[in-house]
């Protein structure tokens, strides 16, 4: 399966990606906050591609402009997502690409794919205490806080951590997407002169109030 967004291609990892993977996965600020150690060599990255990133519904996040991977995203089943109609969303991106909206963009496409094509009803997403970047991504996507678990064993890091779990239901996903489409329509109306700036600001304010009421950004 290959998925596309405005700026990205999401595709299966291949062995030729090992060098690019190592370039970003060796950074100690990338893996450890998500619960895995930095890669130690290109060979280590190749082994990770063969054993971990080859899992079903795991994708390299690639720039459309050059096709090179800059991160990873996937849908997984684990202790949090055990049922046939649910997955957990996981992701990371190389440090040079932080703050550019790539992971929210990729995640929205993964949510669309999960709910609209795979027939899922619930998508979980979590982060370890202190990983504020991941928490913020989940807020932007519209996930809702579900629970906190203390004393989690993070085997790859040989640590005990506190984890926070958020949830997106299919019903909420549809509501979030409706709000986003309404915002796009308002932007189009303003750009084409169909509404004035004053009308836009009033309508946008009303939409923001409604979105805030439902906990959607």
Model regions low in confidence, pLDDT < 50 over at least 5 residues: none
Count of beta strands = 8
Q: Mean of the pLDDT scores?
A: 91
Q: Give a quick account of the main beta sheet: strands, pairing sense, barrel closure.
A: 8 strands, mixed
Q: What's the alpha carbon Rg, rounded to whole Å?
A: 19 Å
How many H/I helices?
Answer: 6
Beta strand %: 25-35%
Shape estimate:
globular
The end-to-end span amounts to 29 Å
Strand order within the widest beta sheet: 1-2-3-4-5-6-8-7
Q: Which structural class best describes the helix and strand composition?
A: alpha+beta
List the secondary-structure elements in sequence, H or E.
EEHHEEEHEHEEHH
Which percent bin holds the helix content? 25-40%
Essential attributes:
8 strands, 6 helices, alpha+beta, about 220 residues, 8-stranded mixed beta sheet, single chain, about 25% strand
Topology:
Layout (H helix, E strand, L loop, with lengths): L2 E2 L3 E4 L6 H8 L16 H10 L6 E6 L5 E8 L9 E8 L8 H16 L4 E7 L3 H10 L2 E11 L4 E11 H23 L4 H17 L4
Parallel strand pairs: 5-6
Antiparallel strand pairs: 1-2, 2-3, 3-4, 4-5, 6-8, 7-8
Helix pairs in contact: 1-2, 3-4, 5-6
Describe the overall structure:
- This protein is α+β, with helices and mostly antiparallel strands.
- The protein has six helices and eight strands, in the order ββααβββαβαββαα.
- Helix content is 39%, strand content 26%.
- α1 (18-25) packs across α2 and α3 (102-117) packs across α4 (132-141).
């Amino acid at each position: 399966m290959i998925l596309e967004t405005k700026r990205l291609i999401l595709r299966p990892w291949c062995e030729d990606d090992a060098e690019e993977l190592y370039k970003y996965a060796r950074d100690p600020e990338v893996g450890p906050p998500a619960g895995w150690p930095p890669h130690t060599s290109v060979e280590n990255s190749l082994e990770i591609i063969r054993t971990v990133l080859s899992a079903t519904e795991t994708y390299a996040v690639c720039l459309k402009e050059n096709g090179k991977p800059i991160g990873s995203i996937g849908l997984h089943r684990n202790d949090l997502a055990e049922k046939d109609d649910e997955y957990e969303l996981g992701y990371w991106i190389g440090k040079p690409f932080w703050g550019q909206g790539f992971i929210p963009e990729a995640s929205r496409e993964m949510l669309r794919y999960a709910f609209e094509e795979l027939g899922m009803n619930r998508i979980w997403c979590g982060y370890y205490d202190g990983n504020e970047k991941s928490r913020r991504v989940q807020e932007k996507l519209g996930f809702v806080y579900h629970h906190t678990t203390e004393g989690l064993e993070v085997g790859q890091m040989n640590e005990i951590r506190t984890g926070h779990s958020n949830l997106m239901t299919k019903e909420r996903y549809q509501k979030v997407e409706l709000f986003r489409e309404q915002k796009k329509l308002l932007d189009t109306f303003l750009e084409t002169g169909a509404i004035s700036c004053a009308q836009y600001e009033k309508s946008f304010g009303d939409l923001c109030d409604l979105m805030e009421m439902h906990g959607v950004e």
